Amino acid sequence: MRVTHSMYRACNTSSPLATYTTGNDSIKITTKGHHFFFCGVPGHCQAGQKVDINVLRLPETAPASAPSGPTLSPPPVPSVSVPVSSPSNALTLKASKGNFAKLGLAITVLQFLYQVSH
Questions:
Q1: pTM of the model
Q2: pLDDT by residue (tens digit) across 62-72?
Q3: 46, 48, 50, 96, 113 from 17: Cα distances, Å
Q4: CA neighbours within 13 Å on the CB side: how many for 46?
Q5: Most buried of 38, 57, 73, 78 (most Cβ within 10 A)?
Q6: Which domains, and CATH codes, for the chain?
Q7: What DSSP assignment string belongs to 12-49?
Q8: Residue-wise pLDDT tens digits, 28-43
C-alpha cells in the first residue's frame, strides 16, 4: 500500500493512496520527496514491513554548450544484508544514506514482502 506520512507512522490501512495486489507490481515514482509504503496484511506493518523512500533532487546537468568531459559512472550499489527471518517475522533493511540505488532496492524489498505475505 502507498500511504501518507501520518498513515505510515500509525500503520493505518483505512484509506491508502494506492494498493498493489499482484505481487509483481511496478511503481513509478516521478516526484522528489518522501514516498511511504507498507504491507497491508494485518500485523505486518507493526512488525516493520514498511519503507520510506526519499527521492532526492537530481544534480544540475551541464549546459549543452559546455565542453564534453569524462563520463561519470553511477555511485556503487550499497551492500545490503536482509535476514531470512527474525523472532517477530519482520525484515530489517539497512543501507547507507544518500545512495539513489536504495530506490530500486526498496521496491524489490516491497515486492518480496508482498510475495512472502501471500
A1: 0.51
A2: 555 555 555 66
A3: 19, 19, 15, 28, 19
A4: 5
A5: 38
A6: 1-58 (2.60.40.420)
A7: --SS-SB---SSS------SSEEEEEE--STTTTTTT-
A8: 898 999 999 999 899 9
